[in-house]
Design brief:
mainly alpha, 2 domains
Length: 232
């Protein structure tokens, strides 16, 4: 309990410090419309370059996995190849998720800044490509482990079937990763709420709607977890 309380306090402090710093910079920086437009173009260009690099990266990882799974290896090399395939798969899925979220963020920025032309089209393009890549990576498990029944992503109850097809060690890794990511997510969301509160106070632009959505998301995720545990 003390550890969780400490996390909340740290999140609040970090959120307050970072948001106060951002507000201070914004208040003391006066940009003309031309300068603002120029900086936005630089930001959009940089983000598109990052998205291009991410896209090429997960395509390369996918091809590397396909190449490794088709290679004929001896029993001595099999474990090393499996470890490498697992690392490549984790890398690829992580990069795909980064690309997916970044493209959503870029599309959101484009809409907010009234950039409905090329920026929005490219954002949508990268989003669609990352979604397709995600499906390909999820279905890749069937090729990595052809002797085990891993479900297709399009099948009903995909998560339950994936869990059933995993062995005890894989389930332990999944549980550990989910618990850590859940704790980190709550920590970050609490910090974001603090940032939005300070932003609302400093700028006079109410962020009540966003704060309410974040609180609802936190309540929903915690309730879903504890109700699942309670009803087991």
């Amino acid at each position: 309990m003390n550890k969780e309380a400490g996390k909340v306090i740290i999140a609040a402090l970090l959120g307050f410090i970072s948001s106060y710093f951002v507000m201070f910079v914004l208040k003391n920086t006066n940009l003309s419309q031309f300068e603002r437009s120029l900086y936005l173009d630089y930001i959009f260009t940089g983000l598109f370059v990052i998205l291009t690099i991410l896209t090429l990266s997960y395509v390369v990882r996918y091809l590397q996995i396909r190449q490794l799974t088709r290679r004929s290896v001896s029993s001595d090399e099999e474990d090393a190849i499996d470890d490498q395939v697992n690392r490549y798969y984790a890398d690829g899925m992580m990069i795909v998720q980064f690309s997916n979220l970044l493209s959503i963020g870029l599309a959101s920025f484009s809409i907010i800044e009234n950039q409905f032309g090329l920026h929005l089209i490219l954002s949508g393009f990268f989003f669609v490509i990352s979604c397709i890549a995600s499906i390909y990576f999820l279905n890749l498990m069937r090729q990595i482990y052809p002797n085990r029944y891993f479900p297709k992503y399009s099948e009903k109850n995909y998560a339950e079937k994936l869990f059933a097809a995993s062995d005890d060690g894989e389930r332990h890794v999944m549980f550990e990763g989910l618990i850590r990511s859940q704790s980190l997510l709550q920590f970050l969301l609490m910090g974001i709420i603090i940032v939005l509160v300070v932003y609302s106070y400093e700028t006079g632009q109410s962020q009540i709607f966003a704060i309410s959505l974040l609180i609802i998301a936190l309540i929903w995720s915690n309730a879903k977890y504890f109700l699942h545990v309670r009803n087991r």
